[in-house]
Amino acid sequence: MLKQIMKERWRKNKYLSLTLAKAEGIWIVQEKLFRNNFLLVVIVFSFFILSCNKSSTNSSDLTTSLQLKNDSISLIKTTKPVFKSMPNEIHAPGYIDYDTRNANVIASRFSGRIEKLYVKYEYQHIQKGDKLFEIYSPEIVTAQENLIYLLNHDAQAKDLIQSTKQKLLLLGLTEEEINLIEKNNAVQRNVTVYSLYTGHVHAMAMDDQNEIFKEGMYVQKGQAIFNVLNPQQVWAVINIYPDDASKIKEGQNVDLSFSDFPGMIMKGEINFIQPYYQNGINLMRARVYLHNEEHHMHVGLLLNANIQAESDSGMWIPQTAVLDLGMNKVVWLKQGNSFLAHKIETGNSISGLTKIISGLSINDEIAWDSHYISDSESFVNTPLTLPKGEK
């Protein structure tokens, strides 16, 4: 690396003089500009290579620091860690979905064949009392015939007639339909099934091939046919990033904003936390229950959530002071007239500040901008100083 640096300096008609010293296990490289002294550069460089070969067995203990002139070090802005409590606001994306706690299933009360469907497509909006489908059922026909027989041949058996009418009511016929059967003295071949709920219709799968119900198909007693969801009751599903999962708790306040409605903010709280596993990663979703009487929030609407998590107390430094090397994170620690690459462990990052877990004390002075004085190619290969006690 030094060889490459010298070639670059040579092309710029500048010559490099290196002064090497070893103090407390630290090699210090000091740069000075001079002219017409290239021979000295070669001698010093050779000494440096020989010294490195002699100490190759202890190379892991060496640490490189950058020593600057007094006039250069004054140009580098420094800072010290600050102990404070930071408000923790978590940002996460999400979307609006149906509140399935209020889902209502419409099932067949008897076996039979669907003769006519009034629900033509999925997500069709229906009101309570709307017709859903007409069905032919031998069981219903037999119950009607029993009622007509009692009315014609045993009109005095009031209790038996009443129990037969009650059976037809339980099977789904309305009082108007029963009165019409009694009045016309005739069997109603097809029975109309009415909705007991208001909402959007979700067709239920009939079998493992996800085939939905159509006219002419047979249904069994108790088989679910439609699922009705109320669009007035929805929830916000918030996708929590893995790094923020440990900070989310039920009851935390949430502000929801929508790109489709600029300036609109809905307030709520975390009502439910749903961990789940996907593609080998543990993930988390949070739910916020919402009322949607005015139908502003349609299902599928994208949103952004700001979650007010618990404040985080500790020692903080600017994010610009941290140099992320992938496996390690370091800062430039000021020691006299030099800056030493120093390994640290970091935690949460909030509003441009990074929390220090270990590696620094409150009185340590570090470079405010680590990238300003770092040369990435030469620095990545430089051994780091480790916190005391760490190997």
Structure description:
With 391 residues, this protein is of the alpha+beta class. The chain has three domains: 1-61, no CATH class; 89-99 and 232-311, Elongation Factor Tu (Ef-tu), domain 3 (Beta Barrel); 104-229, OB fold (Dihydrolipoamide Acetyltransferase, E2P) (Beta Barrel). The protein is 19% helix and 42% strand. The chain contains seven helices and 24 strands. It has helices at residues 2-11, 38-54, 70-73, 138-153, 158-170, 175-184, 376-380; strands spanning 15-23, 26-34, 63-67, 78-79, 82-98, 104-107, 112-117, 125-126, 131-136, 190-194, 199-203, 218-219, 224-229, 233-240, 253-258, 261-269, 272-278, 281-291, 302-318, 323-324, 329-335, 338-350, 353-358, 366-367. The strands form four sheets. Strands 1, 2, 3, 5, 14, 15, 16, 17, 18, 19, 20, 21, 22 and 23 form a 14-stranded mixed beta sheet that branches. Strands 6-13-11-8 form a four-stranded antiparallel beta sheet, with no helix packed on it. Strands 10-9-7-12 form a four-stranded antiparallel beta sheet. Strand 15 (253-258) and strand 16 (261-269) form a beta hairpin. Helix 4 packs antiparallel against helix 5. The protein is rod-shaped, with a radius of gyration of 39 Å. Mean pLDDT is 77; it is low at 1-7, 9-64 and 376-382.
> How much helix is in the residues?
10-25%
- CATH homology superfamily name of the largest domain: RNA polymerase II/Efflux pump adaptor protein, barrel-sandwich hybrid domain
**How far apart are the first and last residues' alpha carbons, in Å?**
26 Å
Rg on CA atoms, Å: 39 Å
CATH-derived topology of the largest domain: OB fold (Dihydrolipoamide Acetyltransferase, E2P)
Number of helices: 7
CATH class bucket of the largest domain: Mainly Beta
CATH structural architecture of the largest domain: Beta Barrel
Count of the separate structural domains: 3
| Percent strand | 35-45%
Mean of pLDDT: 77
| Count of extended strands | 24
Low-confidence stretches: 1-7, 9-64, 376-382
